[in-house]
Amino acid sequence: MKFEDLLLEIGGFGRFQILILFILCLPRINLPMHFLLHNFLAATPSHHCAIPHQEAFVNLTTEEVLLISIPREPDGTFRSCEMFSQPQFHLLLNSSLQPENDSIIQHCQHGWVYDHSQFTSTISTQWDLVCEQRGLNQATATFFFIGVTMGAVVFGYLSDRFGRKAMLLLSLVCSVVFGMLSAASVSYSMLAITRTLTGVALSGVSLIVLPLGMEWVDIQHRTFSGILTSIFWSIGNMLLAMVAYLVREWHWLLVAVTGPCLLSIVCLWWVPESARWLIANGKVKQAHRHLLRCARMNGRKNFAVSPEVRNGRSRHVFLLCHKKPGESYSYISLFRTPVLRKISLCSGAVWFGVAFSYYGMSMNLTGFGLNMYLSQFVFGIIEIPAKMIMYVVVNRAGRRQSQAWALILTGLCIGANVIIPKPFTSLRSVIAIMGKAFSEAAFTTVFLYTSELYPTVLRQNGMGYTSFVARLGGALAPLVFLLDEVWRSLPEVTYCGVAVCCGSVAFLLPETLNMRLPEGIEDIE
User: Fold this and answer.
1) Which UniProt keywords apply (predicted)?
2) CB burial readout 396-419, b (16+ within 10 A) else e
């Protein structure tokens, strides 16, 4: 007897499954509030060199002091990172006469003055992460995703070894601790370390929530549960825009986005361990206790378990157990057999492309002609209809075609905005929103698709490995913005090329539509 048959006996998809899914959706809301926090945490407001006071400036206005102290860009705006070594008083007579001698221009010597009209403070203004230190500002996101990358390896293995629920609880508790320590950071080094550790902790949440929910759901409702969980990511996206709009000080912003994890910790009390994982690991008594609870809540009161089954002596229980005594699996197991090796290599490439393009778009809120808070909100709200459409598409066209074309079209939208001239703001915004919708569709599908590709005994190892590769993409995505110093459009061209190539790799994966979840490696091979 397969586990899906057992699920049908206890109600398939009833009140028990709905309760679990909604509780697991709470931590899902919290994820984008941290994963995309860099947009607001490290925002760089307009700035210019600080000008030391001189007696000669007494009768001059602020605008006149800037005029004689800071060189201008060709468009007339003041430069952010340079100043005159000596005041150029002749510019008061004719401001259009910009000095041609670069020897009188130097880098900022006395710090910077920031425009605080939009942000009370960010880490950029706190530690002057601008100009020569701009790379450290972008590196903050990279440190976080390096943490998420390490967490994917750690929690992927631990949740297959010690269970889904225990590791989810551990990751939530650690998220609260390190999130609050990040808010209390007194130096850039402390922030970099605590944000990295927060990434490690949140990786467990990201990794475990979807498989734990899906392992309690029957075949017919697997797509629904995957899309539902994903929609709550989009709700978190929109909530981030509203929270960031209301909280403009970076310390309190970190507190505001970390606090909801406490609610998730409390609610996790009502979520049982995965019965599928318990049976696969030979813990039959615990599994049947949860199955009985599920049957009662779903109204299947006639579901009974014999003493032989409770003690693990029933033949039908042994048929469910795919893990032999003393047998253990690791990440190496993903590459030992031919079919699993192909799945692992191809899905790794797809995950890299999905994350690389998604975070490349999500961290460029000011590049599409909209207010950054509005961009964040619109990018969140457009994901919901995209996911609704994907619910239909993945059930009609299948997982493989949906995954491939969603990622390819993401790349084409990014590439289109390289060609469209900057003055066409409205058109660029529409293309960007379409690209974001395709990008989110690709991300939604890849979570569902991957959890169906791997067997139960290796599912969390598989999710851990693919999440590791994805977070490498997420870690590299913000650094690619620094390539604009080589060529202004090089970051967008890079995102486009990677998305199209990785989307094409998805055609090599097997289809999983209406297939039973594999329990052991032999089911895959």
Assistant:
1) Cell membrane, Ion transport, Membrane, Transmembrane, Transmembrane helix, Transport
2) ebebbbbbbbbbbbbbbbbbbbee
Overall number of domains in the chain: 3
Nearest one of 463, 489, 498, 499 to 167, comparing CA atoms: 463
Residues 398, 511: contact at Cβ < 8 Å? Answer: yes
pLDDT value of position 406:
95
Q: Do residues 186 and 238 make contact, with C-beta atoms less than 8 angstroms apart?
A: no
351 and 370, same domain (yes or no): yes
Count CB-CB contacts under 10 A for residue 58.
Answer: 7
Q: Are 344 and 465 in contact (CB under 8 A)?
A: yes
- Residue found by looking up tokens 């006071």 in the block: 53
CA–CA distances in Å: residue 167 to residues 128, 152, 336, 363, 431: 38, 12, 26, 29, 40
Phi, psi of 248 (to 5 degrees): -100, 5
Report the sign of the C-alpha dihedral through residues 520, 523, 524, 525, in that order: positive
pTM listed for this prediction:
0.78
CA dihedral 26, 28, 29, 34 (to 10 degrees): 130
Q: How far apart are CA 24 and CA 154, in angstroms?
A: 20
pLDDT of residue 327: 59
CATH number at residue 252: 1.20.1250.20
Tokens standing for 191? 């922030």
pLDDT of 370:
62
Instruction: Return the top range by mean pLDDT from 171-180, 263-272, 475-484, 485-494.
Output: 171-180
Q: Is the pLDDT of residue 198 over 90?
A: yes
pLDDT band at 319 (very low <50, low <70, confident <90, very high): very low
CA dihedral 287→293→298→303, nearest 10 degrees, is 70
Contact 416, 281 (CB under 8 A): no
Per-residue pLDDT for 101 more than 80?
no
For the chain, what is the mean pLDDT? 85
Largest CA distance in the chain: 98
**Domain around 294:** 1-36+125-322
Could you give the CA distance from residue 280 to residue 274 in angstroms, rounded to a whole number?
A: 10
DSSP summary character for residue 515: P
Query: Are residues 287 and 409 both part of a single domain?
Result: no
What are phi and psi for residue 320, nearest 5 degrees? -80, -25
Question: Can you tell me whether residue 83 is helix, strand or coil?
Answer: strand
Q: Which residues contact 137 (CB under 8 A, 6 or more apart)?
A: 42, 44, 123, 124, 129, 130
In a shared domain, residues 311 and 376: no
- Name the residue among 517, 256, 460, 465 with its Cα closest to residue 350: 465
Contacts 24+ apart (CB under 8 A), 14-19: 14/294, 14/297, 14/298, 14/299, 15/297, 15/298, 15/299, 16/216, 16/293, 16/294, 16/297, 16/298, 17/216, 17/217, 17/221, 17/225, 17/294, 17/298, 19/270, 19/297
Residue 325 confidence class, pLDDT cut points 50, 70, 90? low
